[in-house]
Amino acid sequence: MINRISSLLYTLFVFALFTRCSGETTIIDNPDTQDDVNHWIEQKMRDQYLWYDEMPERETLNFSLEPEQFFYSLLSKKDGKDRDGGHQYYSTINQKDAASKSYLGDGYSFGFEFQYYKVTALNKYGLMVLYVLPASPASEAGLKRGDWIYTINDKPVTGNLAELTALLDTSTPKTLKIGIAERFDWAISRTASITARTVTDNPVLVNKTISLDNGKVGYLLYNHFTSGPKGVEDETFNNTLRGAFAQFKADNVSDFVLDLRFNGGGLVSCAQLLATMLAPQSALGDVFCHLTYNNKNKDNKKTLYLDPARIKEGVPGANLNLSRLFIITSERTASASEMIINGLSPYKEMELILVGDSTEGKNVASVTIDADPYDWELHPIVSYLSNKNDFSNYAGGFFPTPGFVCDDSKQGDYYPLGEREEYILMHILNYIAYGNFAKSRSQTLRSAGETNLIPLYNSLERKKTNGAAILPADFYRP
Description:
The protein is α+β, with helices and mostly antiparallel strands. The chain has helices spanning 4-18, 34-48, 67-73, 137-140, 161-167, 236-250, 268-278, 308-312, 336-344, 423-434, 448-451; strands at 81-83, 86-88, 92-95, 112-119, 124-132, 148-152, 155-156, 175-181, 190-195, 204-212, 215-222, 255-259, 287-292, 301-305, 324-329, 351-356, 364-366, 376-379, 381-386, 453-458, 468-469.
């Protein structure tokens, strides 16, 4: 867990790690001067920014601004969304030396994600655990999904977000003592000490085959589109993904559940790999997505395909030739996750059913631009994302399939992700087995009015991408 500033830097570092733009760069004699850095920023943005034609005229720009302020003065309102009383841009900038920690293995972590609530019915604040990484301090302390943290270092969790994020900052390997309740309305039953350390965050968090009377169901909880812990050349995580699909194939699964409820995006190349293994076999070799750049590119549209060769790289994977795919979504589902939905939707040989809540609606991609001797990295939006049918108009997000809206925040007991009793998965398995989307067994439910749980902050905000991340090979330059 890290504070807001560290969270932003973390997200920016992930993009810096994922992508690099090559090409000609104008080197200025005195690159350390603010004016010269800003001229470099302006040059790169006019060249590659998707909405370059909406940037202010050069003579109106203030080149004496701090580089970060100058960068944001260039952006179009089409970039990002209005929310929380302001505008959130998807394009971002960071200093190279500031992006020093990440969940990819270089930073420290307690190993859990959480939703921070105000529990008005009890006049208290708490953190509800969303999931726990294996072999992490949190898992070793016995923390599990659905636990509530009500005290930190023997003091109650307060409504002060800055205070909370400072406590949970993992820029150093600090130790916390936490007080844990098993439900939001129960008293603290135990305490535990957790010390932040380096933790591997493999996006393949849960993969298993579930047997039903009428067939086998594959389940995959995939939490971010990352190829490996050491960057884009590392296939460690992709090989885990391929291996999981080889096992699903061996198990002869007939239905599949892809859980993207926590997945805020990542690499386009990882989305291409996953989609290729999920698509109906008849679609292999056909279009996965189009990347449409600004008209300064000599060829401003690049096509990525459902490429069978990607399955066989490294550890061999498998295409499942599915006739039906369930995707669990939430408001945290964004970017490369939405590429999966959009890219597979034209292939009617496979029924696509979205279960859960509406997605974020990020239909754009970014690339990282850096060059020595400049001390800054730019992450501009450079491309629209569209599917085989050239559909890209999903900035409002994808909605659940009618009849499949399912809110897992309104349950009383949280079961492990991937278990039959887990709220959303239970509904899906019941539909597969019996043809109706209703509870198949007794489970305690609660309404928002009964609990008065007010969400204040979600730790997954730090993993959201500003747009699907494009590798240099995917990026056309003038």
